[in-house]
Amino acid sequence: MTQDNLAASHFQNAGESYAKYRPTYPDELVEFLVSQCQQHNLALDVGCGNGQFSSIIAKHFRQVLATDVSASQIENAAPVPNIRFAVEPAEHCSAEDTSLNLIVAAQAAHWFDLASFYEEVRRIAAPGCVLALVSYGVLSINHAECNARFRLFYYDEIGPFWPPERQHVDNGYASFDFPFQELEYPEMSIERDWTLEQFIGYVRTWSSVKAAAKAGKQSLMESFAKELTSLWGDPQQLRKISWPIAMRLGHV
Q1: How many domains does the chain have?
Q2: Residue 67 domain boundaries
Q3: How far is the CA of 199 from the CAs of 63, 158, 184, in angstroms?
Q4: Which pLDDT tens digit goes with each residue over 185-225?
Q5: Given a cut of 80, is residue 18 above it in pLDDT?
Q6: Can you tell me the distance from the alpha carbon of 114 to that of 136, in angstroms, rounded to the nearest whole number?
Q7: Helix boundaries (H) for 22-143
Q8: Rg (CA), the chain
Q9: Longest C-alpha distance within the chain, in Å?
Q10: Mean pLDDT across the chain, nearest whole number?
Q11: Where is the Methyltransferase type domain (predicted)?
Q12: What is the phi/psi pair of residue 68, to 5°?
C-alpha cells in the first residue's frame, strides 16, 4: 500500500468528526508564516484535511490551493471564495511550476513520500517560497490527575496501536531529512478550553483508537473514557488543553 493510500485509509471516513473535534491552529502561527513570505499570491495547504488551516491562510493570500488524498475530508471542508479544494496526493500537485509563495503541511507530512514530495516542492515553489512542515505534539491537560491518566492511555494502552508514522509527530519531525535552508521559529502552542465531551470526542478521532477497536480492543477507549470522567468532575467544567507546535521551516 502506498503512503497516500495508507493515509487515505486512516482518514477516509473521518471528515465529519475531524471538522467537529480536531483543534485548529492559532492565528499567531499563520501570521508568523506570512511574515516569512516575500509575496502573498498563492499558498498551498497540502494534506489539508477539512480545510481548517486553509481558511486561516486564505485571509492572507490572494489564492489558496488546499489538497488532501481523502475525499471525505474535502467533502467536509467549508467553502471559502479564494480556496480551491482538490483531492490529490502530496507528491503530485496540480499547481503550476514556480507558482507557490508558501507551502504548508500541517500534521500531515509524516504520511508523505518525502523524497517525491520534496521533488514536487522544488517544481512548484516560486523564488523565495517558504516550506513549513508543521506538527503538534502530545497534549497536556491542566489538571494533574487527568493528565496522568491521559499519559498512561497515550503511551502504554493505546500506544501500540499508533501507526509507525506517529513517531515522527512525537519527535516534532526532528528525524526528517530536510534539504532546505532552515529557519528558526518562535515557541508556539495550540490552547483550548474544553469540556469532557469535547476532549473525549477528539480522542475518538485518533487512528490508534480506531485501530484498537478493529483489533477487538475497544474496551481500552471505553475504560479510559469512564476513568477520565470520574477524574474530570463536572462534565461541563472547562479544562485547558495544550499541544506544543513543532516545525521544519525553510526557504526552498
Answers
A1: 1
A2: 3-251
A3: 33, 16, 31
A4: 999 999 999 999 999 999 999 999 999 999 999 999 999 99
A5: no
A6: 19
A7: 27-36, 52-57, 71-75, 114-124
A8: 18
A9: 55
A10: 92
A11: 44-132
A12: -155, 150
Domain CATH code at residue 219? 3.40.50.150
Residue 181 is which amino acid? Answer: Q
User: How do strand 125-136 and strand 239-251 relate by DSSP bridges?
Assistant: antiparallel
Q: How far is CA 175 from CA 84, 114, 184, 188, in A?
A: 32, 12, 17, 20
pTM of the full structure: 0.86
Sign of CA dihedral 12, 13, 16, 21: negative
The C-alpha cell 521551516 sits at 249
Lookup: cell for 219:
474496551
Amino acid found at 220: L
Give the tens place of pLDDT for each residue, 98-144: 999 999 999 999 999 999 999 999 999 999 999 999 999 999 999 99
Across the range 26-54, mean pLDDT stands at 95
